[in-house]
Amino acid sequence: MTLTIRDIAPADRAGWEALWSAYLAFYKVDLSPDITAHTWTRMMDPASPLKGRLAVEGDQPLGFALHHHHCSTWVMGEDCYLEDLFVAPEARGKGVGRALIDDLRDLAKARGWHRLYWHTDEGNARARALYDSYAPYDGHVRYRMKL
């Protein structure tokens, strides 16, 4: 497999949306098309901190890593939050997820960000096996309040 990881570009919209749709289906989430369109618009806005990396083989998108950076009260600098990571089912087990995380780690280091972090569902054993190879589970529990 010849894998390339690069910034998501305007021409990638259809491929990204197909992956995004599969990602939402995996988590059994039904988002309004307006939210998907808004997410895309923010990723394409140079002033927005929300960015995306795309794993492709040839012209076939295989996965994405959506991330943003922010200031932190725990370091004298910024952290990078990997908000969404997804690999197409047919590409799983081929190193695409690892390549996306490695790429984002390298990008974060190059930009001087201090930490890279993410969350996943407790029962997502396959993803957790990958994530555990990077860092141990830190015991934190997430709470989300809808407003």
In words, what does this structure look like?
With 147 residues, this protein is an alpha+beta fold. It has 4 helices and 5 strands, in the order E-H-H-E-E-E-H-E-H. The protein has helices at 13-26, 33-44, 96-110, 125-132, and strands at 4-7, 51-57, 60-71, 78-87, 115-118. A 5-stranded mixed sheet has the order 1-2-3-4-5, with helices on both faces. Strand 3 and strand 4 form a beta hairpin. The protein is globular. The protein starts with a strand and ends in a 15-residue tail after the last helix.
Short description:
It comes from Gemmobacter nanjingensis. This protein is α+β, with helices and mostly antiparallel strands. The protein has helices at 13-26, 33-44, 96-110, 125-132; strands at residues 4-7, 51-57, 60-71, 78-87, 115-118.
What features would you highlight for this structure?
single chain; five-stranded mixed sheet; 147 residues; 25% strand; globular; alpha+beta
Estimate percent helicity: 25-40%
Work out the radius of gyration: 15 Å
Which secondary-structure class do the elements indicate? Answer: alpha+beta
Count of helical regions: 4
Shape: globular
Strand percentage lies at: 25-35%
The total beta strand count reads 5
In spatial order, strands of the major sheet run 1-2-3-4-5
Largest sheet: 5 strands, mixed
Q: Averaging pLDDT over every residue, what do you get? A: 94
Q: Topology as H/E string?
A: EHHEEEHEH
Q: Which stretches are low in confidence, meaning pLDDT under 50 for 5 or more residues running?
A: none
- The first-to-last residue Cα distance is 44 Å
